[in-house]
Amino acid sequence: MDESTEDSPLLSRLALELLGALVVLGFGITVAMGALEHPVAWSDQGPQAGTLPFWLGVIAILASLGIAGQALAQRRVLAAQGVLGRQAALRIGRFLLPIVALVALAVPLGLYLTMALYLAGMLLWQGHGWKAALLTAAAAVLFSWFAFEHWFMLPLPKGPIEAWLGLY
Amino acid sequence: MENLEALMHGFTVALTVHHMALMIGGVLLGILVGVLPGLGAPNGVTLLLPLTFTMDPVSAIILLTSTYWGALFGGSTTSILFNIPGEPSSVATTFDGHPMARQGRAAEALTTAFLSAGFGALVGIVTITLLSSFVASFALRFAPPEYFAVYFLAFASFVAFGGGKPLKTIVSIVTGFALATVGMDIVSGGMRLTFDMPELIRGVSFLVVVIGLFGIGELLLTMEETLEFRPVSAHLSPRAVLQAAARLPRYWVALLRSAAIGVWMGITPGGPTAASFMSYGIARRFSRNGARFGRGEPEGIVSPETADHAAGTAAMLPMLALGVPSSATAAVMLGGLMIWGLNPGPMLFIEQRDFVWGMISSLYLSNVVAVVLVLATVPLFAAILRLPFTVVAPLIVVICAISAWSVASAGFDLWLMLVFGLVGWGMKKLDYPIAPLVLAMVIGDKAEDAFRQSMIISHGSFGIFWGNALVGGISTLAILFLLWPVVTLIRRPARAEPGPAEHLS
Predict the structure, then answer these.
(1) Membrane-spanning residues where (chain A) (predicted)?
(2) Does any domain span residue A142?
(3) Which residues contact B239 (CB under 8 A, 6 or more apart)?
């Protein structure tokens, strides 16, 4: 990929390929193990409940080994390709961690409060100032409240704030 | 002429104030979704799907298809003005579109793109209109073995022509199938792959997976590259628009060739992204203007745009007639059809005439609406893109979270969305194709049911898949497709891979 020159590589394509193959391998083993809780057999009624998932797991395991083998066969070329630079990884991390917080807090705090905190926090953090942060958060909360609670009738998770305000 | 009559009837269904309003709303939402990097057509359609649960099916499909057209057009707008493809399928449009815009020919580039896209879509719709009842009557002879053979063929052709590495395509398909088996097994009643987690009993929703893969995954990819908006003037004077429109017929060869490529790629599961790249590549090789491609040649816009929209539209035909979607967006719509209580497949054309022909005629109308609206709103949406991405990205995250929640009102789905966001990022990085995964999730259950029903009929013998000429032909073709990578490997002995694949879907 076209990484900028100043960004020192963190992961080579080879490492990421092998990591990907490892994830697929783990997935395949999990699926095959899970399938073994059901009969993996062929009766005159055709395949039993566990048969399809079991073989899917086996195919995933074999494919992961094949992918790892292909990657290792071209390890010189792939090891020289950087796919993720330090700066890029940092940007992804800074973007990803707040999403983890958003997901973790959405149910206990209610999605409205969480989205307000998330939006205001992200905008402040990116240097957009208090006014823009509060305005964006307030607009998003008000719009989604009217859209989802009234218009689409799709209630979003609510928490202590809404209960305290007596809104539901 | 039976089709024409049915089409006229369809227009009476589609042409109501309510439906026209949905079309306009859908197109505008779609353009917004297409313009914003990090939100694509499959994601946009997925985000709207929960809102359609309470609508009648005709209104629902009109809203979703209009959003799809809008998203395809919106993707071209940003490709040309900002060199940022809003959609994977509009990447090829940047090659000549952005150079033209930088030369001050933005109006010409945009008009050329929209009109040739409209032409491609029109060819796609006419093909659907002409072929649908033929395909449906053919498909009426389908029993479980035939259904399974068609599903098998769809997956085999992904392996053969999908453009990814065969092993990675297989991983993608297998993952989708495995996710589809999670939950209650309708034959034995057992709980499969739930690992005693109560959240998994209702299964893994493909909507949540799509929101993660395409929404969060795409945002992570965009975050990784520092986005540099280099906007050019988005002013469209009516005169420039008319001049560009008048020049379009000159490219009739490119228009027809690209439309044919698009329709073919749409009906077989190549999808719009592969279609646009293929069309651009073929045009560059065979056109008289080939040498000027990449430096602002209108034909380099005409070719990918026409094929992109022709493929997107033509993908509706196998979705309706066979229940086999050939693009990720069509797979999401197919899931919608099943949620609305419709059973995609040949019987749809007999039991749900209003729905099928209402939808087909709405495709004519919504494409015209889309071309007009997209020309009218270019300055507006170009202004939205001046908002810094650091504001837009968190808003997209919130939209994704709300949609993932609204699928089943479950907090667990938010975590699933996050996990699949990371998976989507990894898949894009390593060129694992995502569309087969979505396809397998949507039709996995149906394929397994068809297979098990066939096995019950035949008492466990595979001979049933060669029981008559029809099913035997489809099965043989599928096996040939599956062996295709092996054949090419033998013909072209192993050589060093040419780096990361060009395909983005």
Answers:
(1) 14-34, 54-74, 95-118, 130-148
(2) yes
(3) none
CB contact under 8 A, B219 and A107: no
Counted domains in chain A: 2
Residue A37 in any domain: the answer is yes
If asked whether residues A74 and A115 sit together in one domain, one would say no
Contact residues, chain B, for A67 at CB < 8 Å = 165, 167-168, 171
**Do the domain assignments include residue A80?**
yes
Q: What is the mean pLDDT of each run of 10 residues along chain B (505 residues)?
A: 78 85 92 77 84 87 91 84 72 85 84 92 91 74 83 77 79 93 81 85 85 85 67 68 86 91 79 80 81 86 92 87 78 88 81 85 89 86 74 87 85 94 93 84 82 86 87 88 77 46 37
DSSP letters of A64-114?
HHHHHHHHHHTHHHHHH-EEEEHHHHHHHHHHHHHHHHHHHHHHHHBHHHH
**Dihedral, CA of residue B42, residue B43, residue B45 and residue B49, to nearest 10:** 130
Q: Is B316 in contact with B326 (CB distance < 8 Å)?
A: no
A19 interaction partners in chain B (CB closer than 8 Å): 426
Instruction: Compute the C-alpha angle B272/B278/B282, nearest 5°.
Output: 145
Same domain, residue pair A75 and A20? yes
Instruction: Determine which of A3, A42, A56 to mutate to test the interface with B (most B C-beta atoms within 10 Å).
Output: A56
Residue boundaries of the structural domains of chain B = 2-491
Q: Specify which residues A47 forms β-bridges with.
A: A42
Q: Answer yes or no: do A47 and B406 touch at CB < 8 A.
A: no
Task: Return the pLDDT at B387.
Answer: 76
Residues of chain A with pLDDT under 50: 1-5
A39 is a domain residue: yes
Query: What ipTM, to 2 d.p.?
Result: 0.92
